[in-house]
Design goal:
Layout: E1 2-7, E2 12-15, E3 18-19, H1 24-34, E4 38-42, H2 43-48, E5 59-63, E6 75-77, H3 80-87, E7 95-97, H4 101-107, E8 113-119, E9 127-128, E10 138-142, E11 146-148, E12 151-159
Parallel strand pairs: 1-7, 1-8, 4-5, 4-7, 5-6
Antiparallel strand pairs: 2-3, 2-9, 8-12, 10-12, 11-12
């Protein structure tokens, strides 16, 4: 499995259940990586998508412990084990953990690669991704730096 995330200098990923910044190049990269694949998200992340609807062109697996949360437009699971069971039907390199913070923490040890958009700015965040530089992960690929909206960023692939 993989994780895909955009982080600031402090590994911040969001504020008030939204992205820290919307960078068209990052959103395009996210779409390129996940389209035609499987994404695993938490209920709050699903509800933050446009119209609170699953992202099109992807198999959306949603983890929610709320028994009242029922959807017929995505796969709803109640436990990590159930998510892993559903994800096992797909090639591991086609499965992406996509947030939020608690979902990343829950599944990070199950991932072999993390696609990280590193934004060279510190924002006021209230949710964070684990600092991969301080863990047993290493960078095996990085794009050249890009700039949009006055912000510099690059795409980085971490592996265990």
């Amino acid at each position: 499995m993989n994780a895909i995330v955009a982080v600031d200098r402090n590994w911040g990923i969001g504020r008030n259940n939204d992205l820290l910044v919307h960078l068209p190049g990052d959103l395009k990269y996210y779409k390129e990586k996940t389209l035609g694949n499987v994404i695993i998200v938490g209920q709050k992340t699903l509800e933050s998508f446009p119209g609170s609807k699953p992202l099109p062109g992807r198999t959306n697996i949603v983890l929610s412990d709320d028994p009242a949360f029922v959807r017929d437009d995505c796969i709803v699971c109640r436990t990590k084990e159930e998510v892993l069971e559903k994800a096992a039907a797909y090639e591991p390199d086609r499965v992406f953990i996509c947030g939020g913070a608690s979902i990343y923490r829950l599944f990070l040890d199950d991932c072999d690669a993390c696609y990280v958009t590193k934004i060279d700015e510190a924002f006021e965040a209230d949710t964070y991704f684990p600092d991969l530089d301080a863990r047993l992960w290493r960078i095996d690929w990085a794009s050249p730096a890009r700039e949009e909206k006055g912000l510099r960023y690059r795409f980085v692939r971490y592996v265990k």
